[in-house]
Amino acid sequence: MPQSLFQRTLVLLKPDAIQRGLMGTIISRFESAGLKTVGMKLVWVDKEFSKKHYSAHVDKKFYIGLEEFITSGPVLAMAIEGIHAVDVVRKLVGPTEPKEATPGTIRGDFAHHSYDYADKKNIAIKNLIHASGNKEDAEKEIALWFDEKEMHTYKTVHEMHVF
Ligand code: ATP
Ligand code: MG
């Protein structure tokens, strides 16, 4: 298999997903698509770590609210592997604004927050999930969140039927 098409991506179930009891429901979306979980842990991040993870956003107006949100409770960090995993996971998750996310996507099915509402209240948009935006970010983010020894290698049935 062309190695560049076989990718790993970072998914975070944000504090709203954990506190709403949606972990199992969301994880099952990725499992149903045949994607493979190769790393998983609950982490309560501090402000310093938030600035590392969201380094692209620290100077933006919404960053204060985003930091408050992401440090407000534990997040479930997952390293997910599969063919075109970065794009496939973004597709399953849906666009950033739940109001615009179509039914069938995780954000469209389980959230309805809008930019307008978030910006008026000076809070982060509550959209349940973070998913790496591209392959380069995915590699950096997995290295930031996981030690090598926390990543696991094993075979799934999909490796017999798809790959
Ligand atoms: P993520 O990086 O969390 O996967 P994303 O790539 O869809 O989400 P980004 O543009 O990277 O979106 O923004 C990071 C996060 O910051 C969003 O998921 C959302 O929670 C929050 N956010 C982004 N833009 C705004 C905004 N204008 N107002 C409030 N919160 C925002
Ligand atoms: Mg992003």
Task: Walk me through what this model shows.
The chain has 163 residues and is α+β, with helices and mostly antiparallel strands. The chain has a single domain (3-148), classed as 2-Layer Sandwich (Alpha-Beta Plaits). It is 40% helix and 17% strand. The protein has helices at residues 15-19, 23-32, 47-53, 63-70, 85-93, 106-110, 115-121, 135-145, 158-161, and strands at 6-13, 36-43, 75-83, 129-131. The chain has a four-stranded antiparallel β-sheet with strand order 2-3-1-4. It starts with 5 loop residues before the first strand and ends with a helix. The mean pLDDT is 96. Bound molecules: adenosine-5'-triphosphate and magnesium ion. Adenosine-5'-triphosphate binds next to helix 4, helix 7 and strand 4.
List the domain count as a whole number: 1
Which CATH architecture is right?
Answer: 2-Layer Sandwich
Bound molecules: adenosine-5'-triphosphate, magnesium ion
How many strands in all? 4
CATH topology: Alpha-Beta Plaits
Strand order of the largest sheet: 2-3-1-4
Q: Structural class of the secondary elements?
A: alpha+beta
List keywords for this structure.
163 residues; Alpha-Beta Plaits; single chain; 9 helices; alpha+beta; binds adenosine-5'-triphosphate; four-stranded antiparallel β-sheet; binds magnesium ion
Provide a brief overview of the structure:
Helix content is 40%, strand content 17%. The chain has 163 residues and is an alpha+beta fold.
Layout of secondary structure:
Elements: E1 6-13, H1 15-19, H2 23-32, E2 36-43, H3 47-53, H4 63-70, E3 75-83, H5 85-93, H6 106-110, H7 115-121, E4 129-131, H8 135-145, H9 158-161
Antiparallel strand pairs: 1-3, 1-4, 2-3
This protein binds adenosine-5'-triphosphate and magnesium ion (MG).
The site of adenosine-5'-triphosphate has 14 residues, from helix 4, helix 7 and strand 4.
